[in-house]
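Checklist before submission:
- one chain only
- standard amino acids only
- sequence pasted in full

Submission:
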Amino acid sequence: MPAVYVAAGSNVEPQKHLALAVSELRRAFPGARFSPWYRNTAVGFEGDDFINLAAEFETPLALPDLLPKLHAIETLCGRPRGAPRWAPRSMDLDVLLYGDFVGEVPGVRVPRPDLLKRAYMLGPLAALAPEVMHPVEHRTIGELWQSFDRAAHPLIALPPG
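Returned file contents:
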């Protein structure tokens, strides 16, 4: 089964919605693991800070079959389908990596194209799975995070619990 890495983020009641998303991901994908949570400023629009994390789980589901499950969790967290892209949101679940798959299926391109540009995706993923190899860059996520300009994109680690 492929290891799947997903970014989760919210800036609308983020603690509440991320806790719900984590609970639902654990229910849907037993054995799921999660990074620490991080606070960062909104990117692409003016808005409240986001809280972000990364999740890892294995699934027998093909990528096109996984997406509706993630969308259902977003909906459960109060995000309507078709919500504006650069706007506040109660939940955003983005597939970052799906095993060593490189390509596109309707609704998603993997690896996530902006993974290497967004601290709020790369930082939590590096905390969770630094040894994972990026299937295009052929460097580990930890190496990619070490060379990332973190001063320009600060993340604030939140205390557990």
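Reviewer check: The first helix runs from residue 14 to 28.
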